[in-house]
Structures are given as structure tokens and as C-alpha cells.
Design goal:
disordered N terminus; single chain; 42% strand; 4-stranded antiparallel sheet; 1 helix; mainly beta
């Protein structure tokens, strides 16, 4: 079972963003949120490793992933996978790309890279020291793009502070080069990033930023009756962005598509609660846009499409899930589920479980990559290996 091209959904970032949305709505009726970070698309998922620099194929050497020592396994298997040299605070986020995984820690901040999610390389300090690790990752023609945009809100207050955006580029996830000039990105929160064969896209609250190389950016603004963007994806034909637009009596979910990052076509999907996000995925032949509420649990509403233009409203069993472009996985209070279309789910058996392994709807920081699903759970890193 090949699990590739994933994203991270960062509960910490999402929760802070919703707090920011509430405060901003009171001030200007223009709200912001963050998204489950990029990864699937309208057509085939992001480009394979062969389109990246040669050094990107194998960030670190690693053994055959089978922590149990058995020659085969018949169930999905949980393996504890904290980087050995990650002393100190808990892991912040995990990201996946065609060449492996990246996990971030706030101290430093630092980054660890792995090809299989088990054998991690040395800690790499991001510059500037004392800043924030990136909270979005996109894979494109020039390698990996890490994006940091942190929103901090006072507890119980109505004001929020947005940290200046930070960008890094990497060919292999093990060495990162900070991009010095980010002035084109402005000062508003950045809520999603996506990358594919056509380049890179960063979504702000109401602005989309496109770059062919991850270093030089241009912006697109004033797209219809936009309330805010909420998530973004990329594929070999271009980009898709989900968000909210003003509608009679409230908000509607909408999707924007573009082949070049400059010209966009919008499709309005249907009503969505004002405190929700519209999260977009590709799973097999199906595009899925989910209505994701804060700290989502239980079923929700979704829209599906096979061409990105015609959409059908339906029910979604799992509001939060992770896709590799061909398969999806979800973790709930009832266990682990797998889907080939993002709508019909099958519960799978797991082994290697303990009282500490990831469980329940509180699991929402994860990424699907070459070996399986990597999860950050209560600050620790876990790998869910598919059956052999």
C-alpha cells in the first residue's frame, strides 16, 4: 500500500486561527483561518521525486521499516518514532513529501528529515534563531518550500498579532536556505501553501501569491465576494483553493481553480457555518471539500467532484483526514479508517498499540508519506505502517 504526498493538519495553528477569525470579524467582517496543509489536487497529486533536484530523493539512509522484527505483518502497525537527538520540547508538526518526512520543533527552531519516518537525520537549525518553525510545506519544481506565519492572540482578548512571514527552501529536507526578501507577501496571515509542477502557491486571508521558483512572488487580489481562503492544493494542471464567500444570510464554501496562478475560475458549493473551514482533498478520482468545524468530531458535510467544476453535496464521516492523492486515512475514537474516495471508509486492524499510541478525534497533526502515516501525538512522533 503506497502512501505518498501528504500534508499536516496542525491543531495548534488551526485553533489559534479560529480565535483570530472571531476577533477580526468583530473589527472588519474579514476573517482568517488556516488550513490543513497542501497536498492533493484536481488531477494527479504533486510531482514525483524525479522532478526535484537529484539530492532530494533520499534525505537520510534508513533500514527496512519493520520495528517488530517480523518478516511480515497483516495489520497496520504503530511504531514510536521520535528522532533520537530531539532533546527538549515536544514536536510541533510533521510534513510529508515524495522523498520522505520532515518534523519540526520550536526550540531553535529545528528540523529533522527522514526517508522512511523511522531513521531521522541530524537536527538542522532554521534561521533566524529564536523564530518560529514553518507551519506549511509545499513541494514544487525547485524542491521544498517551508512557510511560517504565526498568529498569536491574547487569551480572552480581541487583539491578535501576526508574526512577519518567513520562507525557506530545501532540496532534500535536511538543509534549509532562508529567503531574505519576503516583502511581496505583505503582513497579513498566511493560511496555506501548495506546490506542484507549475510552481508554488501561498494563500493569505484574501490574497493568493504565486511563484514559479519559490523565491519571486506575485499576488492576485479582489476575487469575487471573498470572505477568506481556507486551504490550497496543487497538481500537474495548476492549483485549487478552497474558501468562503458571502452569501444570503451567511457564508458559502467555494473553490477557485487556476492553471497559472494568475487567472482564476470560481465555483460556489453551498452554505457553510461561519466558524468552519472548507478543506479540499483529492482521493483517487474524487475531489472532496469538507466542512471542518473547530476541534471537529463526528460526521460533517462535504462536496465531491470528478472534474473540479460540477459538485455534489453529500455527508462526510470524517471531517479531518489525510490523503496521498490516491488513498485517505482517518483516526477517530472508533479506530483507524482507510478510504479510496474520501467518502466510503473501511475500518482496519492495528497492531503495536499501547496506551500511548495515537487514538481518538484529538489526532489531527499528521502527514502521509512514502512509508505510511506519521503522526504527532501529545508531542511524540508515531508512524503507522501499512500491512506488508
Amino acid at each position: 500500500m503506497d502512501l505518498r504526498f501528504g500534508y499536516s493538519h496542525d491543531k495548534r495553528i488551526r485553533t489559534v486561527a479560529f480565535a483570530m477569525i472571531s476577533a477580526t470579524v468583530l473589527a472588519s467582517c474579514a476573517a482568517g483561518s488556516t488550513s490543513q496543509a497542501p497536498a492533493s489536487g484536481i488531477v494527479p497529486p504533486p510531482p514525483p521525486a524525479s522532478t526535484l533536484p537529484a539530492a532530494s530523493a533520499s534525505p537520510v539512509a534508513s533500514p527496512t521499516p519493520d520495528a517488530s522484527g517480523q518478516a511480515s505483518q497483516s495489520a497496520f502497525q504503530w511504531v514510536r518514532s521520535d528522532p533520537e537527538k530531539a532533546n527538549g520540547p515536544a514536536a510541533e508538526s510533521v510534513f510529508a513529501w515524495s522523498g520522505g518526512y520532515v518534523v519540526t520543533y520550536h526550540l531553535g527552531p529545528t528540523v529533522f528529515a527522514s526517508r522512511d519516518g523511522q531513521a531521522w537525520g541530524n537536527a538542522v537549525a532554521l534561521k533566524p534563531a529564536g523564530g518560529d518553525p514553518f507551519n506549511f510545506l509545499a513541494e514544487g519544481p525547485e524542491g521544498l518550500l517551508g512557510v511560517s506565519s504565526i498568529v498569536g492572540c491574547e487569551m480572552g482578548g480581541s487583539t491578535c498579532k501576526v508574526s512577519p512571514p518567513l520562507l525557506w527552501m530545501s532540496a532534500n529536507g535536511s538543509a534549509w536556505d532562508q529567503i531574505q526578501d519576503v516583502s511581496a507577501l505583505g503582513s497579513d496571515p498566511l493560511i496555506a501553501a501548495a506546490g506542484g509542477g507549475k510552481g508554488y502557491l501561498i494563500a493569505g486571508l484574501k490574497t493568493l501569491f504565486y511563484s514559479a521558483d519559490g523565491r519571486s512572488w506575485r499576488s492576485t487580489t479582489g476575487i469575487g465576494n471573498l470572505v477568506r481562503f481556507t486551504s490550497a492544493i496543487a497538481d500537474s494542471h495548476g492549483f485549487e483553493v478552497a474558501g468562503l464567500v458571502s452569501a444570503s444570510g451567511g457564508y458559502s464554501a467555494a473553490v477557485w481553480t487556476s492553471s497559472d496562478g494568475a487567472n482564476w475560475t470560481r465555483t460556489v458549493l453551498g452554505a457553510i457555518p461561519t466558524n468552519s473551514e472548507a478543506q479540499i482533498h483529492r482521493v483517487g478520482l474524487t475531489l472532496v471539500v469538507c466542512d471542518v468545524a473547530p476541534l471537529a468530531t463526528g460526521p460533517g458535510t462535504a462536496w465531491t467532484s470528478v472534474d473540479g467544476q460540477t459538485w455534489t453535496k453529500t455527508d462526510e464521516e470524517h471531517q479531518v483526514f489525510w490523503s496521498d492523492g490516491s488513498r485517505a486515512m482517518a483516526i477517530s475514537d472508533d479506530g483507524v479508517f482507510v478510504s479510496t474516495n474520501g467518502l466510503s471508509w473501511t475500518k482496519v486492524s492495528t497492531s503495536g498499540d499501547s496506551n500511548l499510541s495515537p487514538k481518538g478525534s484529538s489526532v489531527d497533526i499528521a502527514a502521509m508519506g512514502p512509508s505510511g502515516l506519521v503522526v504527532v501525538y501529545i508531542g511524540s512522533v508515531w508512524l503507522l505502517l501499512p500491512p506488508k
